[in-house]
Design brief:
Blueprint: E1 24-29, H1 36-52, E2 55-60, H2 63-69, E3 79-82, E4 85-89, E5 102-106, H3 113-121, E6 127-131, H4 140-143, E7 147-149, E8 156-160, H5 177-183, H6 186-194, E9 203-207, H7 215-224, E10 229-234, H8 239-246, E11 256-259, E12 262-267, H9 272-281, E13 284-288, H10 291-299, E14 303-306, H11 314-326, H12 332-345, H13 354-381, H14 385-397
Parallel strand pairs: 1-2, 1-5, 2-4, 5-6, 6-8, 9-10, 9-13, 10-12, 13-14
Antiparallel strand pairs: 3-4, 7-8, 11-12
Helix pairs in contact: 9-10, 11-12, 12-13
Length: 398
């Protein structure tokens, strides 16, 4: 089942070589990492539709995961519209044969055979993009934009890599991000979202993470510390570890507890724009996967990344590549503190533990905050990923 796309507005009628000659895009998303894959795809689809007047169909194979990010999503509907995007349930027996002008296979997900045949049957072949995972590794620059002819079909797929330099595709960032951040009122947010005044004398932390054996030792350090810590925890997988540490099973949104200098508060899982506000409201942000990792960089606050674990410790190579690139402008003590804590948080063998690494990270937070602001400005100067995709597709059809 599919909906016929709306006609392109007359004021956007395309001219020769204009990117608006490619007004219809399909984004295919297979959900692997709960919210990471759909988080990136939903953010991209919403930006393409909202900022560039592109008709986007987002094909998702797991609407239940998508519903956590898209309030009001109907899990039974084959097609529905949210924020200008047509969201389609991607069924195993895929039958839609209306290939779009641009086709994005997110994170190398395989397209349905019937859809690829429809792509090949078009007079003007679609621009086919494999949107890759984010990485700071050096080899990304050499692979970004490379073509990959498809065996048995007159189609070419291009690799498009998000990244942290001009030789990559950049990072997702909405045009109104700076305005929203400038208008944010942290005092009102704390009172409304947490139900307490903003704790100016405490270290405020947001915690979005996978299950982590390093969490309990860190909570113990915070609870015994001289400085108050207020830790805000959105609902998610880490709640089981919190429950085990606190002895309070079944933790849910609205629950809170105090132990020593540490106050923990569980918050509801929120849509993407509301998550930005959580990051802006805190002094230190623990994030996981890809989407929240990028948003924490835009928030320009100190952060700790819990990277998605891969076989044969491949994720640690990506972690080290980012630490080397992002930490290049830090003084030695702050850089060492960040590296040691991130390695400990991600379970790197042979280094110090989370509790042992915390004091140096805490001491470095003021320098990490200043560095985070400089890093965000540097990334913004590269241009955003959605705009980069548009330029790339325009060149691909010329």
């Amino acid at each position: 089942m599919h909906n016929s796309p709306l006609p392109l507005p007359t004021h956007l009628s395309p001219g020769p070589g204009d990117i608006r000659a490619l007004p219809r895009w399909d984004v295919f998303c297979q959900v692997v990492d709960n919210f990471g894959d759909i988080g990136v795809c939903w953010r991209l689809a919403r930006q393409l539709a909202g900022e560039f007047c592109i008709h986007v169909r987002l094909w998702v194979d797991d609407l239940a995961s998508a519903a956590r990010l898209i309030p009001g999503l109907d899990l039974q509907a084959a097609v529905q519209h949210q924020e200008g995007v047509a969201i389609h349930r991607w069924e195993p027996d895929f039958s839609d044969e209306q290939a779009a002008d641009v086709v994005i296979a997110a994170f190398a997900c395989p397209l349905p055979d019937v859809y690829k045949r429809a792509m090949a049957a078009r007079n003007q072949r679609p621009v086919w993009i494999n949107l890759e995972y984010l990485s700071a590794e050096d080899w990304v620059a050499g692979c970004h934009g490379l073509p990959s002819p498809q065996p048995g079909l007159p189609l070419v797929q291009h690799f498009f890599f998000p990244g942290f330099d001009a030789a990559s595709g950049g990072l997702l960032r909405e045009a109104d991000y700076a305005a929203r951040q400038a208008a944010f009122d942290p005092d009102a947010w704390w009172q409304t979202r947490v139900g307490m005044p903003r704790p100016l004398d405490a270290l405020t932390v947001s915690l979005f993470a996978y299950e982590n054996p390093g969490l309990a030792p860190l909570l113990d350090v915070w609870a015994r510390g001289a400085r108050p810590v207020v830790c805000l925890v959105p609902e998610g997988r880490v709640l089981a570890d919190l429950a085990a540490w606190s002895g309070q099973p079944g933790l849910k949104a609205g629950d809170g507890l105090q132990r020593g200098a540490l106050r923990l508060q569980v918050l509801p899982f929120v849509p993407q724009q509301a998550y930005d506000e959580l990051l802006w409201a805190c002094d230190l942000n623990f994030v996981r996967g890809e989407d929240s990792f990028v948003r924490a960089q835009w928030a320009a606050k100190p952060l700790v990344w819990h990277i998605y674990r891969q076989e044969e410790e491949a994720h640690m190579v990506k972690l080290e590549a980012f630490l080397a690139r992002q930490g290049a402008g830090l003084d030695t003590a702050a850089r060492n503190a960040q590296e040691a804590f991130w390695r400990a948080w991600n379970g790197s063998e042979g280094g110090m533990g989370v509790a042992e690494a915390w004091p140096a990270l805490e001491a470095a937070l003021p320098r990490l905050a200043a560095h985070g602001q400089a890093w965000a400005r540097e990334m913004e100067a590269l241009g955003d990923l959605a705009s980069g995709l548009l330029k790339f597709c325009k060149l691909a059809v010329q």
